[in-house]
What does this fold into?
Amino acid sequence: MQIIVSGALLALAGIAQAQVAGYGQSVTTTKATTLTTTSKSTTQTTTASGAVCTGQFSAISAADFVSHLHPGWNLGNTLDAVPDEGSWNNLPAVASTFDTVKAAGFKSVRLPVTWAYHFTGSSPDWTVDPAWLQRVSDVIDMIVARGLYVIVDVHHDSWVWADISQSGANLTMIEEKFYRLWYQIGTKLACKSNLVAFEPINEPPCNTAADGAELNKLNKIFLQAINDAGGFNSQRVVTLVGGGEDSIKTADWFVAPSGFSNPYAIQFHYYSPYEFIFNAWGKTIWGSDSDKATVKADFQNLRNAFPNVPIVLGEYDASPTNTEPAARWKYVDFLIKTAASLDISCVLWDNGLDHLDRTTAVWRDSNSLSIITKSTESTANSLPDSTVDDYATTQSSSAYIFHQYGTAVTAQTLPFLFNGNTLSSISDSTGAKLSSGTDYSVSGANIIFTASYLSKYLSSTTAPGIVATLTLKFSGGDSSPTIQIVQWKTPTLSSTSAVASAVSGSDLLIPITWGGVKTVAAVKALTKSGKYLVDDWTSYLGPIQQARTTYSSQFNWDDSHVILTSSAISSVISAGESAVFTFEFYPRDNGAVNAVNFTLTV
It folds into this structure.
């Protein structure tokens, strides 16, 4: 996930002004509300202390709302971008994107919104730009018009101005500003339908039980604000949050506010294990019994803490950008089915670089998409097998058929996790089906591709790269994994060294001639004296993780370059000695052959 992170107080005649006297003091309003109710809907017909709505609001329970969220999708890095929509890697949102999302099988959209740079006034009103409020409202309307459910939040404000965990945090200001912000959002969105829910704040920093108690207070201030804003807000579903929207901290410290009629669910986020999801320290494998037990325990812990409360997994991701396919599919499959077993609805994080290419309306990983949108607790998906041992010295993956340049073509055996299914067919990119017995065969838990079939694509001199993509269909499940046939040889760099001080303060882009899959698997970094450049504790990890660095923090890549970040360069300068960066590629062989070295000298 790339986390790259608005509203005016409407001066409505005849509406009582909420009085905010400061930190710790109550919020009061004068209410004169008459509601006409039926068993299914509410019609607001007279004045209230906040917005006045016409028409009906069909009340929905939190459990029903949450059940309609799954599967859900996040419009990430868009309205939450800093300082404004379009500032990051996406163009402003357009309605057609939500057509694409719905067509893919998603039922809801979480709408992250950063408001921090759209305040036009200061204390005590904290007025928000009406144009920004209108923009948020318009995007919500785009989503709802397609019958999709919506969760709208306050997003990167959590660290821009609302970090209650900081030493010396001005809680008086934060609470006042938080109330005023949600009063304005609540007023603007008060008459939205029951398809729209509110989330008070995204991933609020939280380190202690005292922080947790303060976040419980912010949940209450949020509820007070939207109820004071009037309209249909007293019946609107809300997804309340605990510390960091972390499953453990939420289970430990979250306490639901009392005194409000809003149906509520609890929202949490999950990006674990961190090292796999974010390609840190060479962790490119997943799927051991221990890996699965950790996910299950984290989810079960939250469900045990709140057995009768609807729960939303509002963000999770295993991105096709930086995770190995077979490991990714196993992870997504297990996460989705574990969540389903505990009645947890899931909303996929997508920052525009991960899953949906919003420009072309093409999903980057069709197999992950099928698993996410179709699988249930009982779905038995067939998946390619891959290395699960953290202490292995090499990494295998049945998502690929790797053939090394300069060698003879031979039959290839790929272990698969059939999960009770049988292989129905294999098709190439033209849709032509391979011939069972001639092109491939199945033996036990293995799919074997013949040398004669692979020779249609491969020879000792075939140009390196992905030369074919095969799609597999099985008798059951919702998974349709692909196998990429790859000719590989060791990539080459346009240069093999640079002077660290000469490139200090910026990222270093090193032109590369790729030798197969255009992805960096991991980067090892050692000083000339043999010290680990960063994270020396990785010496306790397995061979293909020792001395490895972290994607985006120390290394990156694009179509034409491998990249050392400014942080990596600073680490070399700070170390006071030259360092060798070993760029490793798939297939991973612990740097033995399929790797190249680059030296930063001091």
